Amino acid sequence: MADVKIIPIILCGGTGTRLWPASRESYPKQFLPLSGDRTLLQDTALRVSDPARFDDPIIIANDAHRFIVSEQLEDIGVRPTIALEPCRRDSAAAVGAAARLAELRNPDAPVLILASDHVIGETEEFLAAVDAGLPAALAGKIVTFGLKPTEPTSRYGYIRVGAAVAGAPGVSLVESFIEKPARPAAEKLVAEGCYWNSGNFLSLARTLLAELTRLAPGTAGPAIASADKAVADLVFQRLDPASFAEAEATSIDYAVMEKTPHAAVASVSFSWSDVGSWSALWEISPRDASGNTLVGPSAAFGSSNSYVRSDKHLTAIVGMHDAVVVATQDAVLVTTRDNADKVKELVAELAAKQEPMATQASLAHRPWGSYQVIDQGERFQVKRITVKPKRKLSLQSHVHRSEHWVVVQGAALVTVDGEVSLVRENEAVHIPLGAVHRLENPGVVPLQLIEVQTGSHLSEDDIIRYMDDHGVE
């Protein structure tokens, strides 16, 4: 087994709405450092980075997140295949397309399907579980990882365990899956010795594709075709849009795992959370003597068992118990831990009212860097712009606004109507309305500047692009 390299497939298309306002559709939870210094995606990728066990991973991600994924994995030295979903079709189509890409790389490869937004506490125990499940996977089983419940919760699905799998110690057949039962039923399942279903699994790529084709042909056919017709774009693989759009939207659990006779479960000992709510994050986070988790500039007085998180402003609670308070640059959430699961419903209601902050993060990421609106009003807008070293924005002009740039860190190479100048720290430059201009960072440190826009129309659609290194702004 030492010469068998597993291809990790990391699913990175979730929206994480239960962790709003920190997590939003434009920048969901897998890209956030929620349980340490690295993001959940980075932790997931590093967990399967041992070259003795694993081949380079395949990340399947939303097209809108492609540069975030690429940047975060580049920062930790991981070189993946990044496959881009042209539209959302749930996890079965994503898994099918990624498994086909893995099969094209190596027809005999086992694949390890992982969520990008789970927290696993002990990497060595995780790797031991993968090693234990591999013989069963090589023998044609689809092995999921089952955890011994710590409580009878309805947040997770359960696995009822059957007979042992020959030749694979610690692995058993799956008798049945039970999807998120009510608490009384969960108590009975825990008493029976059932496991929590982690939602991650190991299989030969060809086994997985054969079962998906047999059980969900309306999803498998289009997903496989989208991978066969994928085209390269910069460092990405774009799945064929027409094919992928034809796939029936369904989850891999419903399409395959709950129906296949080849399902098996490996009993595992590592700690795990899907970080499905603020309450779940509180459960796995360090807490003070009063049971409070305080993240960022935050404080608690006369309070207990609460989660307080702030990105910028000092956020304090007094006399609160079992509370959740999350303050970002542009939104504040106040709820209780018991009601934390309802945040998803709140976000859906805000989105239905076309509230931009329901889905759009205040920090907008671009292939060249990022920008954040820090103030705005009638006929003006102020942004903080960061440009990565050796990156440049498109050559562009505006019809309705002028801009004034003040450099606060680094040096900017600025082109205005063909004239090029170097603007250093504490210096400024004016971009008149209609001027053809470009901003570039020629240095080796991030360029930071404050941009003041004035004019009658200040949205991002007031940009005429003449030359763009990235194909998108």
TrEMBL record:
What does the record give as EC number?
A: 2.7.7.13
- Which reactions are catalysed by this chain? alpha-D-mannose 1-phosphate + GTP + H(+) = GDP-alpha-D-mannose + diphosphate
**Limits of the MannoseP isomerase/GMP-like beta-helix domain:** 303-350
Kindly state which keywords UniProt assigns to this record, in alphabetical order: GTP-binding, Isomerase, Nucleotide-binding, Nucleotidyltransferase, Transferase
- What SUPFAM superfamilies does UniProt report for this protein, alphabetically? Nucleotide-diphospho-sugar transferases, RmlC-like cupins
List GO molecular-function terms, semicolon-separated: GTP binding; isomerase activity; mannose-1-phosphate guanylyltransferase (GTP) activity
Similarity comment text for this entry: Belongs to the mannose-6-phosphate isomerase type 2 family.
What is the official name of this protein in its record? mannose-1-phosphate guanylyltransferase
Query: Could you tell me which species this protein originates from?
Result: Hansschlegelia zhihuaiae
